[in-house]
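Bug report (template v2)

What were you trying to do?
Predict the complex of my protein with magnesium ion.

What happened?
Run completed; filing so the output is reviewed.

Input:
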Amino acid sequence: MTTTAIETGSGRAKRGVPRVPGAPLLELQDLVMHFATRGDGLLGRKTSKVQAVDGVSLTVREGESLGLVGESGCGKSTTAQLITRLLKPTSGKILYQGNDIARLNERALRPYRREIQLIFQDPYSSLNPRHTVGSIIGTALRTHNMTAKGKELARVQELLEVVGLNPEHYNRYPHEFSGGQRQRIGIARALAVQPKIIVADEPVSALDVSIQAQVMNLLEDLRKEFGIAFVFIAHDLGVVRHFCDRIAVMYLGRIAEIGNRDDIYGAPRHPYTQALLSAVPDLGTVRGTPPKARIRLVGDPPSPINPPSGCRFRTRCWKAAEVCAKEDPALTRRNSPQEVACHFAEAPEESIIADLRADA
Ligand SMILES: Nc1ncnc2c1ncn2[C@@H]1O[C@H](COP(=O)(O)OP(=O)(O)O)[C@@H](O)[C@H]1O
Ligand code: SF4
Ligand SMILES: [Mg+2]
């Protein structure tokens, strides 16, 4: 793979989205997505709100990789679809290079659509089965006017090579490739338009473990070579450990803890992060604890239609106290380098050891 393979494909300089001086690449401010659903009221007419994303704020800097982690249903994919503006938020801001794209119409979104790309969990369902790989990637190139006339095939072949596929296979259909290869096609399609940020929604969750490592390595190479920023979504902390500079842990539509990788993995402060980490083989042993000790997370998260009052994690938290039901803990630094939404985010090791002893 060479830098020129991705950067020279178009042969023409792309004018990017303007940047507000000093603004980070991406900033979400108090982002909310509530879905209206039919509830159980009389004749099923009463509607209720699914609070899928409920006040998410975070920042992604140029070239940085942010891991977004949490159990199924906590709002990760909704966040991904908001960042890529496949969904329009109920409220809040999505600032890309300082420009709020939260309410832009499709026409105004066009330049942003090129710079912010999405890679899906299931590559098969995101690739049109009736189109060849060449046509799928070619469509992305044409939509954003990325190649000069007559250069499209050469560019498709370059991109296939960049993602480790045989450039001669441009005429094949998605079903002729394996799962890992199909994910590579999805990555090539995203790369075709020279994005500044890729939102990768559980891109390796559907793949065999051995293939997962290969795709992760490819993404890591691309990140290093082209300086692309990532929002990398995963449901456990094991997958994102090496790939991400920063980690945001999500629970029931909110951020529970966000900070640098070393702080999150080395000294997690939120009980939910501690439980997630404890569940990851090889990572679960906290310094000073017996090797097999684990924090067990019991039950499923509550429904986002009717989340608990105060702290949303309180129904599963072994530290919950009266204040947790009354006061929603703000996401803030609590004598810690990372930001934590917990009333009792004291020094990490002592608290975990105490919990484990109590558990024994
Ligand atoms: N279009 C929708 N309509 C109603 N509820 C939805 C819709 N999309 C997602 N949800 C709900 O929002 C919550 C968060 O979903 P999602 O963002 O897919 O979570 P995750 O990706 O973390 O598993 C879930 O309860 C899900 O059922
Ligand atoms: S605020 Fe209370 S319930 Fe929430 S995580 Fe902290 S201790 Fe647990
Ligand atoms: Mg999801």
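What did the reviewer find?
DSSP finds twelve helices and twelve strands in the chain. Confidence is low (pLDDT under 50) at residues 1-5, 8-13, 287-292, 350-360.
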